Amino acid sequence: MNNKGFLSTSMVYSFFLVFLLMILFIVANMINNRILVSRLVSDIKEDIYGNDLADFIMDAASDTELIYNAEINSYRFVGANPNNYVCFGSTTTPCPSDNLYRIIGITNNQVKIIKVNSITVTTNYAFLELLNYLNDTDTGFYATLNSSNINRTNWYSGNVSEDIIQNLADVYSAEISSDAVVDWVGLPYVSDFLGANDEANNNWLNVSNTLFLTQHLNDLGTSEYYYLNNGVINYTSDITTLIIRPVFNLKNYTAFNGGDGSQNNPFMIGG
Amino acid sequence: MNRGFVFIETIVTVVILCASLIYLYSSYSSIINNEETRIYYDDPAYVYKASYLRDYLINNSNIETIKNDSQTFADYFAHNIGPIYEGLFLGTTSDPDFYRMWNNFHVRNMVLIPSDLITECDGNLSGEIEGKCEETYENYITSYHLRNYIRSLNDTGHDYYLVVEFSETLDDNGNIIGCNMGADIRCHSYYVSLGI
Asked: Taking an 8 Å Cβ-Cβ cutoff, which residues of chain B contact chain A?
């Protein structure tokens, strides 16, 4: 008879419990939905970033082949024969030899590549003329390229003195302090060559007679370029007999479309 | 005999339960409010729109030069990047295609921030950094909602982020149009950040 209070209290407790459960159910659902949406957004963003060539190479390349070089603030492929081949301007498999390039390194997410096959120059061009020759949109090397993936960058004249030519940090510092021209295509610098040395001085860029864009500092008023003479850096004013291997920088976030960087299965790039 | 006791017991129970319910409801409301705010953050449709803008900037503008210029973020942790940002496009004050995208996507604001803004301007600040953070918020991130969004960011995997604010509403015919938060009714802003 005396359990009216008990009954009303039980009713209030029951309502409270039901209300509490409803709130818990709604909040749990909301948290679950939030987690799902966060994962979805995260996947979408990964998709947006994820097919980036530079990011992929940084993840996939061997730690002994791609190393960070603090002296030039850049990641560089080093050693005798790293897996740094890339197919530029073609999606054909196997990559046509004329489209085969190798990656020099990655600076600020920008991939710098060098052509495997050389081209010829028949005139002793001075620095600006040489760049004009390479970048002529009608007859130059640039005209043969699919330019939508190439970045316009500074190309430095160098003017590096002989006494520092073996010192990477000094050469790099002198190069980037020299006069520059903004253009698409250039040539490898001496610093690119020195930066490709591994600890045992194996160097995949050590191809005899390769012409460097870096010029010798002289008082002659004429262009003297450094080049490789049987592994030794020398300089000359006659570039007509030398190996010209064009170099350029790919646009940031160039898409990666497969490959493992070996010569037979080079990295493929999109767009 | 103990009717008085039962009555008091019931009153006490009801009071305690009511207090608990009020507390629960306020917590619930706060969660709902946060959730309602968060639906305007990183909405997938707007993430894609922002990625088109980002791609366009990467491939057609001087955004890399701006990022790499040591002076760009010397005084502030942010810069408002838009169609009329000086030096954004080579040899021209603006870019018609980018301007068109900006209008069609109903972009209201776009801020380029270094990840330092996320890492440095958080928690207890002092000295130079505090001043730089305050100046940044006062001069470049003036919108209260944009500021809240940036403060909710915790991804620092990229060195720089593009934070985009889209403002949209529906016109009388149900079409989505651009609008100004605070000035136009039913105007909603959506926020997206992408590494760049």
From this structure: 2-3, 5-7, 9-10, 13-14, 17, 20-21, 24, 28, 31-32, 35, 38, 42, 44, 47-48, 51, 54-55, 58-59, 64, 68, 158, 194-195
Residue with tokens 């005396």: A2
Cα distance between residue A232 and residue A240, in whole Å: 19
Percentage of chain B modeled with pLDDT above 90: 15
Q: From residue A247, give the alpha-carbon distance in Å to each of A38, A114, A115, A145, A271.
A: 42, 4, 6, 12, 19
Q: Does A180 touch chain B (CB under 8 A)?
A: no
Report d(CA A152, CA B161) in Å as an integer: 23
- As to burial, measured by CB atoms within 10 angstroms (0-12 exposed, 13-18 middle, 19+ buried), residue B173 is exposed
- pLDDT above 60 (res A22): yes
Instruction: Answer whether A34 touches B (CB < 8 Å).
Output: yes
Asked whether the predicted pLDDT for residue B4 surpasses 80, the reply is no
